[in-house]
């Protein structure tokens, strides 16, 4: 039995997703050649994947160093929001330096990924931005010394 909100994908959909995830700039003509399909059929498939929200957006991955965003930190936060409330998460998401906000299980409530220029700018962010969010009870910050792997790609099944 298929769940009401479950999205069914076939072998061609998975192939399209693998190709597009490897190169978001791949042209429709190149997709059609790779899939041995008509360009109109491929375009229709891609549009359906967008409509079904399988493809959420197209982005460019930038090197943070030339943009003076060399410091990467993860901040664990305890907050006083009630269970199921996302008020603090929404406020954190509004801060430009905050790249990710995850509501987590365990002692902490949120795990927040932040990029700034340096430790002084991280401290400024915490003093001037986080301090304005009333529900934050405590934070624990981990500064990344070296990134070995960072990616957004998902594993796409071989159907």
Give the beta-strand count: 4
Largest sheet: 4 strands, antiparallel
Helix segment tally = 5
For the record, give the distance between the C-alpha atoms at the N and C termini, rounded to a whole number.
19 Å
What is the count of structural domains?
2
- Low-confidence runs (pLDDT<50, min 5 residues)? none
- Would you give the CATH topology of the largest domain? Alpha-Beta Plaits
- CATH architecture annotation name of the largest domain: 2-Layer Sandwich
Strand content: 15-25%
Looking across the biggest beta sheet, what order are the strands in?
A: 2-3-1-4
The topology string of helices and strands comes to HHHEHEEHE
Percent helix: 25-40%
What is the molecular shape?
elongated
Mean pLDDT: 93
Assign the CATH superfamily of the largest domain. Lrp/AsnC effector binding domain/regulation of amino acid metabolism (RAM) domain
The gyration radius over C-alpha positions equals: 20 Å
Describe the fold and architecture.
- The protein folds into two domains: 41 residues, Winged helix-like DNA-binding domain superfamily/Winged helix DNA-binding domain (Arc Repressor Mutant, subunit A, Orthogonal Bundle), CATH 1.10.10.10; 79 residues, Lrp/AsnC effector binding domain/regulation of amino acid metabolism (RAM) domain (Alpha-Beta Plaits, 2-Layer Sandwich), CATH 3.30.70.
- The protein contains five helices and four strands, in the order αααβαββαβ.
- The protein has a four-stranded antiparallel sheet with strand order 2-3-1-4.
- A hairpin with a 6-residue loop joins strand 2 and strand 3.
């Amino acid at each position: 039995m298929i769940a009401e909100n479950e999205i069914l994908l076939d072998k061609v959909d998975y192939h399209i997703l693998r190709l597009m995830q490897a190169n978001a700039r791949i042209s429709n003509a190149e997709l059609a050649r790779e899939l041995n399909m008509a360009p109109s059929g491929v375009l229709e498939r891609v549009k359906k994947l967008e409509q079904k929200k399988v493809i959420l957006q197209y982005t460019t991955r930038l090197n943070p160093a030339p943009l003076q965003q060399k410091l990467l930190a993860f901040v664990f936060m305890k907050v006083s929001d009630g269970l199921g409330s996302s008020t603090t998460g929404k406020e954190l998401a509004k801060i430009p330096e905050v790249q990710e906000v995850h509501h987590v299980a365990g002692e902490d409530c949120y795990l927040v990924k932040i990029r700034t220029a340096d430790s002084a700018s991280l401290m400024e962010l915490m003093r001037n931005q986080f301090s304005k969010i009333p529900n934050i009870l405590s934070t624990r910050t981990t500064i990344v010394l070296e990134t070995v792997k960072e990616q957004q790609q998902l594993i796409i099944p071989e159907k």
